[in-house]
Amino acid sequence: MSDSNFAPVVAAWRERRSSEGSHVGLHELYAMVAQPRGLTLTELPLEDRESLTELAQAVFWPGYQRVTETRPSEPVDVVPYDDEWPLRFDTYATTLRSHLGSQPYRIDHIGSTSVPGLAAKPIIDILLCVTNLEDEASYVPAAERSGFELVTRDDAHRFFQVPWPAPRDAQLHVCRLGDPFDTAHLLFRDYLRHHDDVRDAYAELKRTAAVAWRDDRVGYTYAKNSFILNVIEQAANETEATA
Questions:
Q1: Which end of the chain has less neighbouring CB within 10 Å, N or C?
Q2: Structure confidence by residue, pLDDT tens digits, 35-77
Q3: Within a 13 Å sphere around the CA of 64, how many CA atoms are in the beta-carbon half?
Q4: Considering the entire predicted model, what is its pTM?
Q5: Using CA atoms, how far apart are residues 192 and 190, in angstroms rounded to an integer?
Q6: Element of type H or E holding 180
Q7: What is the H or E stretch that residue 230 is in?
Q8: What are 127's strand-pairing partners?
């Protein structure tokens, strides 16, 4: 189905998300297309899911622009925690620091590989926080010299990947220091680091989602949407209560 044929569904989904909040994610959009056809979400053809995902990006990420094509599709593979992951982060972070100069910034290891004991896709997520996100000249060349290419930009962040055909072993997110994108990722990471029961529940969700959404990386990501939002909310509430 062409993207134009999806426009009415995407518009209705956008209105629902606006009224109900960010728990209305990509799977709810898939359902609005799949259910009238009598299909489950994973039975919806991958081509349709990919079209819906791209149409949804401007809703998830206001100001969304695609700069380069994403890497070819690769299956979702969740593996046991590896003690080498922090060392791989350190290597990337050291390289980035060598190219960023003296400007103010902060680099953090985020995502599942940053939580000891948590099963994850073996991809290191790196968060670079800068004071001026719009000043791409201050960080894009450094990211490129560190082995990344800019894939998408939006009002909240920039997303970089390792270019194909090099192995997908890391990805870089750049945002403003102290913005919601920054604080949410740290809240989620730190909560999992300090709550083993939540970490283990998340691991089980990830393993189940990786089987169901093996051919759809963004579908896999949004299978965890409500869990992540709930944890961030809980972490924020606890942080506020102890402040």
A1: C
A2: 999 999 999 999 999 999 999 999 999 999 999 988 888 999 9
A3: 11
A4: 0.94
A5: 5
A6: helix 180-194
A7: helix 225-242
A8: 108, 173
